[in-house]
Amino acid sequence: MTKPQAADISGPASAKPNLDLWIARGITLGPVALAFPVATWLVFGLGSDRKATADGLALIYSFGLFLGFTTSLWPLPSLRSWTGRERLQSLCLLFLIVSCITHLSWELIWLVAHDAIAGSRDAAWAYPWWAYIDGGDMRYAEATPTLLMMEVLSVSNGAICALGLALWYRSNGTDIRAVLLFMAMAVVHLYSTSLYYGGEIIAGLPNVDTSSVLDTWVKFGLANVSWLVFPPCVLAWGAGIILRRDGGPRGS
Fold first, then answer.
1. How far is CA 116 from CA 39, 43, 119, 250, in A?
2. Is residue 1 part of a domain?
3. Residue 90 falls inside a structural domain
4. Residue 4 domain flag
5. pLDDT tens digit string along 93-102?
6. Domain count within the chain
7. Whose CA, among 63, 79, 157, 231, lies 20 to 30 Å from 225?
8. Residue 23 counted as domain residue
9. Could you give phi then psi for residue 171, rounded to 5 degrees?
């Protein structure tokens, strides 16, 4: 059986972000990156209301991330010639990169310093976490054993993803080990995020203000749903790469 060329694994060379795609991602993900420092400045520098600021941050973060991940599916002029496989690969790589950054920054710091964060509600340095806790999910102020273990999984997943991305880009997308690591990461995402949602829902949402549509459907719901929606995309993309590498399914 003939081995495929590198392009069969990494995807066609045209599957690279074009200018309008970069702009779309800047419009959606740029505000997410700026939201936490700006919110901290508004609350501690200008005295803005904590709850209102947290609400605004939640809207920016939740909608910005979800829309940003989908930008390669938009009908952008430079993407008209892209195949479905190219669009899927672009989506998955963006999701993996953003996930890695999230796990190894916000979540890693919370995991290491959760006690200090919980005791520093009125400290500016802790606001990036308290902005999520305020009206969103009080579990991050209490650090239950289950939540701690879930965050250990998330941070470990971030390390796995970082290794996969290093292998992927170092090999120009030819190292199949990177794909296997990405797929493993996607499986753990599905498990931990399902546990996160399911455990809270079965318990009756005790840590969420269910009288608030914003707190329930945006802060608790949409803020984390990307890690249920996009991991299956990674699994589908990875499976396609493996099948192409092996010459397709037996008997085809």
1. 20, 19, 5, 56
2. no
3. yes
4. no
5. 999 999 999 9
6. 1
7. 79
8. yes
9. -95, 5
